[in-house]
Design a protein that fits this description.
This protein is of the alpha+beta class and about 220 residues long. The protein has helices at about 5-20, 60-65, 90-100, 160-170; strands at about 25, 30-35, 40, 85, 105-110, 115-125, 125-135, 155, 175, 185, 195-200. The protein has a 4-stranded mixed sheet, covered by helices on one side. A 4-stranded mixed sheet has the order 8-11-10-9, with helices on one face. It has a 3-stranded antiparallel sheet with strand order 1-2-3. The termini are far apart.
């Protein structure tokens, strides 16, 4: 088929479908079109100079959809974070650490005689909706280990030096002292890593924390 014939077919069948103005973007020396995957192409079907093309937000919208495709909620479905579960061997020791040491409070408790386990839910005053579930399996000697696929629990504190001093007085090892006045790490009796972060700006360096070395791992 001749070139003239191809152009005639294009005018009749192709351009009316492909050429909607919403897909034409003013860009550089000519017009370019884009798809929802962010790919861009020379828009030979526009058949007009770039200076004549009106501004278009289609490519920007396509990029936004692409960037947000992993964060968009399912239609009609709202997810809510509930809790993090931690298995503990000694429930009393765990409660002493989390309640007396970190200041969490017990929200509710459930003893299951048939399953031989106890669940205790804890929360911090500043974020009562985010709970920690302590699971105590009665008489279990299972080695829960310290797998690295779980990182840590993090809590914001009013005074990181005072918090660390309080934990140390309870016999808790400060594995990563707050030398920078901002961050510290400790571990629960079941070796759960706990990150403490200073609220607001970091505090000025202070002893004994500024010169205290790390202890163990966290």
């Amino acid at each position: 088929m001749s070139t003239t014939g191809l152009l005639t077919l294009g005018e009749r069948y192709w351009l009316p479908v492909y050429r909607p103005r919403a897909l034409v973007l003013e860009r550089g020396p000519g017009c370019r079109a884009g798809d929802t995957h962010g790919r861009e192409y020379p828009d030979f079907g526009a058949r007009r100079p770039a200076t004549a093309a009106p501004p278009c937000a289609v490519l920007a919208q396509a990029r936004t959809r692409r960037e947000n495709r992993h964060s968009a909620p399912l239609p009609g479905y709202a997810m809510r974070y509930l809790h993090t579960m931690i298995r503990v061997h000694d429930l009393d020791a765990a409660l002493k650490f989390f309640c007396q040491g970190l200041g969490l409070h017990e929200v509710r408790r459930m003893d299951n005689e048939a399953g031989k386990f106890t669940l205790v839910f804890l929360a911090a005053e500043g974020s009562p909706q985010a709970e920690i579930e302590l699971t105590h399996n009665w008489g279990s000697d299972e080695d829960y280990g310290s797998a690295r696929n779980f990182g840590h629990l993090a809590f914001e504190v009013e005074d990181i030096y005072a918090s660390c001093a309080h934990l140390a007085a309870l016999g808790v090892t400060i594995n990563r002292p707050p030398r920078d006045g901002h961050m510290a790490f400790v571990r629960s009796p079941d070796l759960i890593s706990i990150e403490l972060l200073q609220k607001g700006a970091r505090l000025p360096p202070a002893e004994p924390w500024a010169s205290m070395p790390n202890t163990g791992v966290w």
